[in-house]
Specification:
- The complex is a heterodimer of chains A (about 325) and B (about 375).
- Chain A has about 325 residues and is α/β, with parallel strands linked by helices.
- In chain A, about 30% of the residues lie in helices and about 25% in strands.
- In chain A, the strands form 2 sheets. Chain A has an 8-stranded mixed beta sheet, with helices on both faces. Chain A has a 4-stranded antiparallel beta sheet with strand order 2-1-4-5, with helices on one face.
- In chain A, a hairpin with a 2-residue loop joins strand 11 and strand 12.
- Chain A is globular and about 65 Å long.
- Chain B is an all-alpha fold.
- In chain B, helix 11 crosses helix 12.
- Classes of the chains: A alpha/beta (about 325), B mainly alpha (about 375).
Chain lengths: ~325, ~375
C-alpha cells in the first residue's frame, strides 16, 4: 500500500433499498486527495455524486441498506468512529458540506447569524457568543455577504445570498475539507461566476480543500486540481485536472467534455445517446458500453481501473 | 446585480447598531399583525352574532309567534275580566282588546319592522347588554341574561382550558415521540385509532360514565361539586377536580388521536426538510435537531391546526356539559334551546363568538411570535417566503 493521501477513500460502497429492489448508488469508489488540493466530481444526474459526498460525511438516508469501505482522514479511519464521536469530532470540525439544495438548507425561523454560529457553539470552538459572532462576521465578509444580513431570516435573502450564507456556514469553523454539492446549479450565470470566484479566493487564502460535485464542467475548471468522472456509481476516470480538462481519455469523459459549450470553437454541441443504465438493472460488463462510440468485444467484461500514466486512472479496456 | 452593489457597502455596517433596530422591527411587525388580526376578528364576531340574531328570530318569523302569543294572552286576560266587562258592547270590547294588544306589542318593540330591530339587537348583543331571559333564571334568581351567562362561564372555562392544555401537550409529545419511531407498532396503533376522533366528546362521556361511575362506582356521574358542597377551599377544589376527571378525559380522548396523527405527520414531513439534513451535517445533537430544526419550524402549522381543533371542541362541549350535568354555558344553552328562550340563546352565542375570537386571537399572537415570515400590509423585501 502506498502512502496515504490526506483524504483517502477506499472502496466505498453504498446500497439503498427501494420498493423495486436494492440499488448500488456508490460502487467501490476509491480516490486520494492531497492536503490543500481540490477536486471536482463530474457526471450526469443520478450517477451517485451526491450520494458519495453525503456518504463521506456519513449522512445516510433512511433507506440505506449497507454502507461499506474506508474513509481515511489524515490516516485516521473514520469508519471505525462511533456515530457520536463522528458527529462531534468530524462533522464540521474537519469535514463540512454545502448541500445540493443550499437554498432550502437554512432553517426558516432562525436568524442566519445564529445558524452560521451554531457549528462553533456545538463543537465548543469558541468561548463565548461574542467570539462566535466575530467568527461569523469574518466568515460573512469572506464570502461577500453584507454584515447587515446577519440579523435577517433566510426568507429575506435572495437565492445567491442564501448560497453564500451556506458557504459562509461551511467555512466558519475553517474545516480541512468542504464538500460542495452543486453549489451553483440553481443560480444565474453572473451569480455563479461570482461564487466560483469567492471559492477560488478562499481556497488560496485558507488552503481549504474543496470537493466540488457538479455537472457544470465549465465553471468547475476554475478551482479544481484534480478531477473524477463518475458513471453509474463508479469512478471511470480520475486524474489531474490539467489532464482531464485538456485531453480526457475515457470515452464518457470525452463525450462529456465535448458537450460543454465553448465560444472559441464553432461546432455543434455533442451529446451522448441514450440514458445512463438503471442502477436497479445494471448491464453485464462495462456499464457505459451500450452508449459508447468506441465499443468493442472486450466491453462485455467489466474493465478494472487502469493506471494509464502516473496518476491517471481510466476504467476502460482501450487503455489496457 | 443588486448583490454587487450591496457588496461594496459591506464594510459600512456595524454589527451592534443593527441589533436594536432589528428587534424593534420584530416588535413593530408583531404589533401591526395583532392590530390587523383584531380588526378582522371583530368583524367576524359582528357577522357571526348578527347571523345568530337572524336565525334565532327565524328572520322575523318569531315575531308572528310572539304576536299570536300576545293576542292569546290578551284574550285570556279579557276572559278573566269577564265580570267587569260583562255589559260592554262587542264593538267597544274589540277596540279595548286591540288597544291592549298594541300596547303589549309596542312594549316589546313589535311595532317596528324586524330588520330595524335586528340592528338594535346586534348593538345590544355586542355590548353584552343581553336583556332579560324569558324563562331561565340564574341560581340567585335573576333573569338578567348577562348575569346568567357570567355565572355559567367559569365552569366552562375551567373544563375547556384544562382539557385544551392537556390535549396540546399530550399530543405534542406523543407526536414527536412517534415521529422518531415511524412505522413502529405503537405508531401504527395510533394511526389506526385516529378515526375515533370522528365521534364527539359526549359520546365517549357516556361510556366513561357507564364504566367509571355506574359499573365501577369510583367517580361521580355528573355535576361539578359534591352535594352538599364541602366546606373550605381545598376540599371544595378537590371535589371539583374529582368531578372534572371524566369530562376532561372525554374531551381529551375525543381529540387526542387525530391530533397526534396530524402532528406526527407534520413532524415527519418537516424532518425531511433539507435544513434538518444540514443540521445533522453540522454535527448538532439529536436533541438539538429535534427542538430547533423540527419542532420549532413545525410550530406555526401546529398552532394553526390546533386552533381549528379548538373551534370544533367548543361546539362539542355543549352536549358534553349536558351529559355530565356540568353547570356551564353549554348546558345553559341546551336548556335555553329547549325552552325557546331567545335572549339566552343569542346571549350564549355572543359569548361563544367572543370566546372563539379570543382563542383564535391568542393563538394568532403566538403564531406571529413564532414565525418571522408573518407580515401584513407591506411587501417583504426578501419577497419569497
Amino acid at each position: 500500500m502506498e502512502e496515504r493521501k490526506y483524504l483517502d477513500i477506499e472502496d466505498i460502497e453504498l446500497f439503498f433499498s427501494t420498493s423495486e429492489g436494492t440499488v448500488r448508488a456508490v460502487d467501490k469508489v476509491s480516490f486520494g486527495l492531497p492536503r490543500g488540493e481540490s477536486m471536482v466530481v463530474v457526471g450526469e444526474s443520478g450517477c451517485g455524486k451526491s450520494s458519495l459526498g453525503n456518504a463521506i460525511l456519513r449522512l445516510l438516508p433512511r433507506n440505506t441498506e449497507k454502507y461499506e469501505g474506508h474513509v481515511f482522514l489524515n490516516s485516521e479511519d473514520l469508519m471505525s468512529l462511533s456515530d457520536e464521536k463522528f458527529r462531534h469530532d468530524i462533522r464540521w470540525n474537519r469535514l463540512a458540506l454545502v448541500p445540493q439544495a443550499a437554498m432550502n438548507s437554512l432553517n426558516p425561523v432562525i436568524k442566519v447569524q445564529d445558524q452560521v454560529a451554531e457549528p462553533l457553539l456545538v463543537h465548543d470552538m469558541v468561548d463565548n457568543k461574542e467570539q462566535a459572532k466575530d467568527r461569523v462576521v469574518k466568515s460573512f465578509r469572506r464570502v461577500g455577504v453584507p454584515t447587515d444580513f446577519l440579523q435577517r431570516y433566510p426568507f429575506e435573502l435572495s437565492g445567491g445570498m442564501k448560497q453564500r450564507v451556506s458557504i459562509a456556514m461551511s467555512l466558519v469553523t475553517e474545516p480541512d475539507i468542504v464538500i460542495l454539492d452543486e453549489p451553483t446549479s440553481a443560480l444565474d450565470m453572473l451569480t455563479q461566476a461570482n461564487i466560483m470566484n469567492v471559492l477560488k479566493r478562499i481556497k488560496e487564502e485558507l488552503g481549504i480543500s474543496f470537493i466540488l460535485i457538479t455537472h457544470d464542467i465549465g465553471t468547475s475548471s476554475e478551482i479544481a486540481d484534480r478531477a473524477a468522472v463518475m458513471y453509474a456509481g463508479q469512478i471511470v476516470e480520475y486524474t489531474d485536472a490539467r489532464n482531464f480538462f485538456g485531453d480526457p481519455l475515457h470515452p464518457y469523459s470525452i463525450k462529456l467534455m465535448s458537450s460543454v459549450p465553448r465560444l472559441d470553437v464553432d461546432k455543434d454541441l455533442d451529446y451522448i445517446p441514450g440514458q445512463p443504465p438503471s442502477l436497479l438493472n445494471l448491464p453485464e460488463g462495462c456499464y457505459f458500453a451500450e452508449r459508447c462510440h468506441k465499443r468493442f468485444e472486450k466491453c462485455s467484461q467489466e474493465p478494472p481501473l487502469f493506471e494509464v500514466e502516473d496518476d491517471w486512472h481510466v476504467k476502460c479496456w482501450l487503455y489496457k | 446585480m443588486k448583490e454587487e452593489e450591496t457588496l461594496e457597502e459591506t464594510e459600512k455596517y456595524a454589527v451592534d447598531s443593527l441589533e436594536d433596530e432589528s428587534s424593534s422591527g420584530d416588535a413593530a411587525r408583531i404589533a401591526k399583525y395583532i392590530l390587523f388580526r383584531t380588526l378582522l376578528l371583530m368583524m367576524s364576531v359582528v357577522i357571526g352574532v348578527y347571523l345568530v340574531i337572524l336565525v334565532a328570530n327565524m328572520g322575523g318569523q318569531v315575531d308572528d309567534i310572539r304576536r299570536a302569543e300576545i293576542s292569546y294572552n290578551v284574550s285570556m286576560q279579557l276572559m278573566a275580566m269577564q265580570d267587569q266587562l260583562g255589559d260592554m258592547p262587542a264593538e267597544e270590547r274589540r277596540e279595548f282588546e286591540r288597544q291592549l294588544r298594541e300596547r303589549e306589542e309596542r312594549r316589546l318593540g313589535l311595532d317596528q319592522p324586524f330588520i330595524l330591530r335586528s340592528f338594535v339587537y346586534l348593538r345590544d348583543a355586542l355590548t353584552l347588554d343581553l336583556g332579560r331571559a324569558e324563562q331561565l333564571t340564574s341560581d340567585t334568581g335573576s333573569r338578567r341574561v348577562r348575569r346568567i351567562i357570567l355565572e355559567r362561564l367559569p365552569p366552562t372555562l375551567l373544563l375547556m382550558i384544562t382539557s385544551f392544555f392537556i390535549l396540546f401537550f399530550i399530543a405534542l409529545f406523543v407526536a414527536l415521540f412517534l415521529s422518531r419511531r415511524y412505522g413502529s407498532k405503537l405508531d401504527r396503533a395510533i394511526v389506526t385509532l385516529a378515526p375515533t376522533s370522528a365521534a364527539p366528546s359526549w359520546f365517549y362521556g357516556v361510556f366513561l360514565i357507564l364504566i367509571f361511575s355506574t359499573v365501577a362506582g369510583i367517580l361521580p356521574r355528573g355535576g361539578m361539586v359534591g352535594a352538599p358542597p364541602p366546606e373550605g377551599t381545598l376540599p371544595y377544589a378537590l371535589s371539583v377536580l374529582r368531578h372534572a376527571i371524566l369530562p376532561v378525559t372525554a374531551l381529551v380522548i375525543a381529540g387526542v388521536f387525530i391530533q397526534i396523527y396530524n402532528w406526527r405527520t407534520f413532524f415527519l414531513i418537516y424532518s425531511q426538510e433539507d435544513y434538518v439534513e444540514m443540521a445533522k451535517a453540522k454535527g448538532l445533537s439529536r436533541r438539538n435537531i429535534e427542538l430547533k430544526y423540527i419542532l420549532r419550524p413545525t410550530l406555526p402549522p401546529i398552532i394553526t391546526s390546533f386552533a381549528m381543533a379548538l373551534i370544533f371542541r367548543w361546539m362539542g362541549s355543549i352536549v358534553l356539559e349536558r351529559v355530565f350535568n356540568w353547570p356551564g354555558l353549554g348546558r345553559m344553552l341546551f336548556e335555553a334551546i329547549g325552552l325557546y328562550d331567545v335572549p339566552v340563546i343569542v346571549g350564549a352565542q355572543v359569548i361563544f363568538a367572543y370566546l372563539l375570537a379570543f382563542t383564535v386571537f391568542f393563538l394568532d399572537i403566538i403564531y406571529a411570535i413564532l414565525d418571522p415570515r408573518v407580515k401584513v400590509g407591506q411587501g417583504s423585501e426578501g419577497g419569497k417566503a
